Amino acid sequence: MTESVGKAMRLKRVIDPSGVSVICALDHGMTSPTFLEPLADIRARAAEAVAGGANVIMMSKGMIRLSEPAFSPTTSLALLLSASATPSGARPEIVQIAEVEEALRLGADAVVLFTALGGESEPSMIRILAAVGRECAALGMPFIAEAEFPTTYASVEDLKEQYGFEYLRRNVRLCAELGADVVKTNWPGDQESFAKLIAAANGIPVVLAGGSRLEDLELLSRMEQAMAAGAIGCSVGRNIFMHRSPEAMTRALSRVIRDGWSAEKAHEALAEEIGGGS
């Protein structure tokens, strides 16, 4: 029973006592086709997200040693296990770049695996997904599976048109079937469709991915609708760390997720805090 207790203890940090999760993803140095300047000071971005209310920081193993001082005693670490080897391609090849055992040694409370389906790489991706789920279960490590469109560096509107809603729904269900404890997925376009993704997860907690850069109110509106549909929170990267005030943006998301604020109310408070504008 040791492993199940270990997973339960870690999940208490990934999903906080109120039953929600505010994840800030700072792992884009592994996946972006271009260098994202705000991530040059990874410790500062981590500190801002923690100050704004993020209870989970997602990053790759090389940045943990630099960012650890920014974590509070209750901040959870989610370690990236996969990255896009050819991020500019039409259908990127996904490669595993860390092991679950490494995550344990580094003090992580969860591991994260990006899942891209379709094309010639699908069988190997499914094998990796199943193996990571199996290893996480054996070692007591929570498993966050990113059931997203094959590339995250385009608007979800364009990606939905290219791949379709059923691509997301199949991906969400596959990740749940193969052992994910939390599933992260894209905004499908409306609350009703997001509710169908929640249903596909069949009880596995779902968080909304932030995706490409959005206007603040649009992001908060998507978050409000996702929560109404049954999400437990978010996993947001560029819309936090590329914001003029990462701390304030994280706080706005936290208010929608934790405190039940409307998107409009959270946006008004955000604009007042930063002096207006995205």
Describe, in plain words, how this protein is organized in 3D.
The longest helix has 18 residues, at 122-139. The chain has a single domain (2-274), classed as Alpha-Beta Barrel (TIM Barrel). With 278 residues, it is α/β, with parallel strands linked by helices. An eight-stranded parallel barrel has the order 1-2-3-6-7-8-9-10, surrounded by eight helices. It contains twelve helices and ten strands. Helix 8 crosses helix 9. The protein has helices spanning 2-14, 42-52, 61-67, 100-105, 122-139, 156-163, 165-177, 191-201, 216-229, 238-241, 246-258, 263-274, and strands at 21-25, 56-59, 76-80, 82-84, 94-96, 110-115, 143-147, 182-185, 206-209, 233-236.
Summarize the structure.
The chain is built from 12 helices and 10 strands.
What features would you highlight for this structure?
two-stranded antiparallel sheet, alpha/beta, eight-stranded parallel beta barrel, 12 helices, 47% helix, 278 residues, TIM Barrel, 15% strand
Structurally, the number of domains stands at 1
User: What helical percentage do the residues reach?
Assistant: 40-55%
- Which structural class do the helices and strands define? alpha/beta
- What's the total number of strands? 10
Low-confidence residue ranges: none
Strand order of the largest sheet: 1-2-3-6-7-8-9-10
Distance between the termini: 48 Å
Shape: globular
What fold name goes in the CATH topology slot?
A: TIM Barrel
